[in-house]
Fold this protein.
Amino acid sequence: MNENRAPHRRDLSRREFVQGSALAGFAVFLAACGRAGTSAAPSTAASAAAPSVAASAAPSASVAPTPVPSMATELNWANWTYYMDVDEATGKFPTLEQFKEKYGTTVKYEEIIDDNDLFVGTIKPQLEAGQDTGWDLMCLTDWMAARLIRLGWVEQMDLGNMPNVVANLQDVYKNVTWDPTNDHHVPWQSGMTGIGYDKNKTGDQDSIDVFFTDEFKGKLTYLSEMRDTIGLAAIRLGDKPEELTQEQFDKALAEVDKAIKSGVVRQVTGNSYVEDMAGGGVILAMAWSGDVLTLLVPDQKPDQDFQWALPKEGGMLWTDNMVIPKGTPNKAQAERWIDFYYEPQNAATIEAYVNYVCPVKGAKEVMLESSPELADNPLIFPPDDWTARLHQFRATTAEEEMAWSEAFTKAMGL
């Protein structure tokens, strides 16, 4: 994390881009994100920060507000990059500033997650021992959240402290098999994996085939997330990631292994492919679409034209979730932040900046009142014909997970 890192995006320009671009099938859901920086002591700077979306609009459901705590506490939150609204002038996070001011909370927010496995590996000993990891809140993708829940490494949340979550969580996110009581995780943003490319160097792209040919040999990257890379390979072979068999996994892995060993793939990365594209060394990537959007301002150079496409064959869909690790001393404060985000006006403010799919009921109505063009943004509220082309990687047994992850890691050379 670099507290002095220059602001990476400007909200208005992103919106202008989304409205005016000819993105090939700009898709549904999106991946990992936030911004570099640390929010420290409580502040009143929120009112001067990036534009808020209809702060005065009413929530979609009437729920009792979370009581203000009697004493200040702290919140230590680990997130991915490009996943939070930012004031470009100050580098601060407006919604976090509002939360700090309301509750008198000291917040340390860090974009320290680049890969689910790598991040969890840094705190695994503490998780296994039920000790404080240094984090009160973590944002993890479905499969990793499911793994930690299965292992008993996350706290059970007190839904009584989160009335906004109870009232405003979209129905599609409820009753997942790995957390049927909906009290060990709460969705943060949904994401999708497709094709990120520099149109000036590659031309328009709309097929997964481009990742497995020599056309851009040595100038493309795969993702270190097994479910993304194997998922796209399986879709290309005509298989469904949500129903993947051992034989189908093996076939997809063989295709990936062949592309890596033949030099088609420049490298395997997490979020860092964004910097590789900005630098020009990579012109094509298995990409989380919002990450590519963040390259537009100010990173996009005059000779670059970054685009994102949902492949015609289909793409991968998943959700990043907020979970509270076992042993945290600030569980109640983590629950307060989660509930704060689930106020529709707060969710709408964040979505207006990050352009990811929102899990909060009422956020679209807030946008319709204040910013109708955002309510029509397919990145935030995708149309049905896009969702029909998306796949979710199936749940795996503990044995499958270990075997498949080891096989993938070996093929990746990680």
User: Anything to note?
Assistant: DSSP finds 16 helices and ten strands in the chain. The longest strand covers residues 186-198.
